[in-house]
């Protein structure tokens, strides 16, 4: 009688000149205190590249490499800035060679972790998770860290690399919704709000571009911040945001929304989309634009 052995995951890590060259370029700008840390990071990057989305033990394949990886990440001499410095330098090189418009995509994502007790990892939120037997909503506490990143791509969608990145937890900053419970958030200096990440990434990512006027920074509704508009103008770069606030415009006798309602349609764009049932349909978008003078909030007019 034959017995079947349980299948286990395994992989072979290639050691091609092409992959080694890419890794060397990505880590060349890293400046660790110990040369051995730089070598370990290069080796670890190669293993993780061949196991994207996998756990560290699977990417490392054996206990020796796995233990070395955990020691690297817990080393007090290794910082986020040191790890990312090489990639930022490589991104700068690719941006310098791209003789075309650059789109800089800014967004925030969350990394959540299961925690049964309070920990050093900050609060992300308390979403509802159904109802109890009495019909009352139940909530769970979600903890983790947040990452705000700026990704440079070409208009065709080719990624050129990250140009800025910032990690933080809610124990360091309070979000706008939390501030609204105690004070008008427009009267709080932006340096004391989470919104400061948009300005920091805008400044850092623009610094990597030789010609800031050749770049368009793109953000969602969270990026509708007057200080961001002001900084972009100061840096000589461009921005495209989705409006969230109907700001005063022109001579303060009107608003952005009121002016755009009067604007003529200057073009149309057709896109194919799907409804909730998965059925496809074609949507027609009207394109309008105007040049307006946007005024600062009254609390910051001075």
List keywords for this structure.
single chain, 302 residues, alpha+beta, Serum Albumin, Chain A, Domain 1, Transposase Inhibitor Protein From Tn5, Chain A, domain 1, 3 domains, six-stranded mixed sheet, two-stranded antiparallel ribbon, globular, disordered N terminus
**Overall pLDDT, averaged?**
85
CATH class of the largest domain: Alpha Beta
Here the CATH topology of the largest domain equals Transposase Inhibitor Protein From Tn5, Chain A, domain 1
Low-confidence stretches: 1-14
Oligomeric organization of the protein chains:
single chain
Could you state the CATH homologous superfamily of the largest domain? Transposase Inhibitor Protein From Tn5, Chain A, domain 1
- Sequence of secondary-structure elements: HHHHHEEEEEEHHEHEEEHEE
Helix content: 25-40%
**Tally of DSSP β-strands:** 12
Distance between the termini: 87 Å
Rg estimate, integer Å: 24 Å
Separate helix tally: 9
Percent strand:
15-25%
The best one-word shape is: globular
**Describe the biggest sheet?**
6 strands, mixed
What does this structure look like?
By secondary structure, the chain is of the alpha+beta class. It has nine helices and twelve strands. Strands 1, 2, 5, 6, 7 and 8 form a six-stranded mixed β-sheet that branches. Helix 1 crosses helix 2, helix 2 crosses helix 4 and helix 7 runs parallel beside helix 8. It starts with 16 loop residues before the first helix and ends in a 15-residue tail after the last strand. The N terminus is likely disordered.
């Amino acid at each position: 009688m034959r017995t079947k052995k349980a299948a286990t995951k395994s992989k072979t890590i290639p050691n091609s000149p092409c992959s080694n060259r890419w890794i060397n370029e990505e880590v060349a700008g890293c400046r660790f205190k110990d040369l051995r840390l730089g070598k370990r990071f290069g080796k670890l990057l190669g293993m993780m590249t061949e196991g994207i989305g996998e756990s560290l033990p699977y990417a490392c394949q054996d206990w020796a490499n796995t233990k070395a990886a955990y020691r690297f990440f817990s080393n007090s001499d290794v910082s986020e800035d040191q790890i990312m410095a090489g990639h930022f330098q490589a991104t700068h090189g690719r941006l310098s060679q791209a003789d075309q418009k650059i789109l800089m995509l800014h967004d925030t994502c969350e990394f959540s972790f299961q925690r049964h007790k309070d920990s050093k990892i900050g609060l992300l939120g308390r979403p509802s998770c159904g109802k109890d037997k009495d019909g009352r909503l139940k909530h769970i506490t979600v903890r983790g860290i947040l990452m705000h990143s700026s990704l440079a791509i070409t208009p065709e969608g080719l990624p050129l690399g990250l140009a800025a990145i910032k990690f933080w937890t809610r124990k360091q900053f309070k979000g706008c919704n939390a501030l609204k419970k105690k004070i008008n958030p427009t009267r709080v200096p932006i340096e004391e709000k989470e919104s400061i990440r948009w300005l920091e990434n805008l400044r850092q990512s623009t610094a990597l571009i030789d010609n800031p006027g050749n770049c368009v920074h793109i953000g969602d509704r969270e990026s509708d911040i007057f200080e961001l508009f002001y900084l972009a103008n100061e840096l000589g770069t461009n921005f495209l945001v989705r409006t969230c606030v109907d700001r005063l415009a022109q001579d303060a006798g009107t608003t952005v929304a009121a002016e755009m309602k009067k604007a003529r349609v200057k073009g149309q764009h057709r896109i194919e989309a799907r409804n909730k049932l998965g059925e496809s349909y074609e949507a027609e978008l009207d394109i309008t634009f105007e040049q307006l003078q946007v005024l600062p909030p009254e609390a910051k007019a001075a």
